[in-house]
Design the sequence.
DNA sequence: GTCTATAATCAGATAGAC
DNA sequence: GTCTATCTGATTATAGAC
């Protein structure tokens, strides 16, 4: 490749990147709105404004589309976690992460996947970007969890992994949808309610 | 109808009831195992051992099949609630109900529906048996919740409806699946872990 | 890489004989 | 009411021209 070709190639790659971003963004919205099964590849193509066949030039299957959306949300989680002060109270950082998850969910930006779909699970587990992101997030949160337990902030009788899963599960917590559907509470109120029940529990203190 | 016909008709109706029970039982298992979208009507027919067209003589649509399974699980919940001593500690009764939900779920008997599917929602809301059961359960739990709040057992700063939804959400809590998949904990341990995080929260007391 | 057109399949629902 | 056979529509994925 000659030197004069480099910018041209780079520009093309940037265009490609922009288009793929648009695709993943549309997939993210549709996954958050209707879930994996109800989302059709036709819809994705229509939202992006390209032909379905073009989609398949970028992503080999519907499962890979979903995986790309999960990589994206995992990247966002990593970005948020990295933005938190590492020297701060670990419990406060954990609260901040859960609050962030709830806000993304309330904004309708949290993609949800059916946990039982096996071909989807296989695609996700074969996706290194996703698995790396998942492990990175787990490590960061796990360290804070153990620190908070050592400091007597989080219950030490709960396995750290159970606490971690409890946080992850907030991303698909039906309480949020129930409360949102009722229309009785603002997004801020829902956030604080779920945060409170998650950390403080239901029993009076 | 003559007197001699009555037993015959009644027998026929009993046979019909038995068959429909078998259908709903199969639907329940499939919904618990793979969810609504992945469950096919062909599968249901195969499991019951009848032709698909016969299914449609009993239930007019796939949505109605799912609704029948939800009616069944709601009926079971009512039965369990009725089996509890009304004069007992309301908080203990609530714990018992949540424990029951978790055990049904861990046994793979809890049907789950996609909350976003609108035609399914419409079918459910048009089903009087389901709506009556849902309201009955809500009333019974709601009374215990308010009693427990008045007694200073449950946090009084949480709206009762939010607590109720938190209980309902245990029926589709992904933490249970996460912990079950890991294989590190027994069903009893998972039950106690989720019960503890639900009522006592994550923060050390 | 993007498009139009189409294949291939699958699943919900129905027709019509018995 | 039950069956076999079929319809109908939707959906994932691809062929092939440009």
Sequence:
């Amino acid at each position: 490749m000659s030197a004069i070709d480099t910018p041209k190639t780079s520009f093309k790659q940037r265009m490609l990147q922009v288009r793929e971003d648009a695709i993943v963004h549309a997939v993210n919205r549709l996954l958050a709105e209707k879930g994996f099964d109800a989302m059709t590849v036709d819809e994705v193509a229509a939202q992006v404004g390209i032909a379905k066949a073009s989609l398949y030039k970028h992503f080999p299957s519907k499962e890979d589309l979903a995986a790309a959306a999960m990589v994206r949300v995992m990247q966002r989680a990593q970005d948020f976690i990295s933005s938190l002060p590492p020297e701060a109270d670990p419990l406060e950082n954990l609260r901040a992460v859960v609050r962030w998850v709830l806000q993304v969910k309330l904004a309708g930006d949290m993609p949800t996947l059916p946990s039982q779909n096996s071909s989807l699970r296989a695609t996700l587990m074969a996706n290194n970007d996703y698995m790396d992101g998942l492990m990175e997030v787990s490590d960061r949160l796990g360290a804070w969890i153990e620190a908070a337990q050592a400091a007597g902030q989080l219950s030490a009788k709960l396995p750290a992994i159970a606490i971690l899963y409890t946080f992850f599960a907030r991303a698909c917590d039906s309480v949020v949808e129930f409360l949102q559907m009722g229309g009785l509470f603002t997004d801020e109120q829902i956030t604080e309610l779920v945060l409170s029940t998650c950390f403080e529990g239901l029993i009076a203190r």
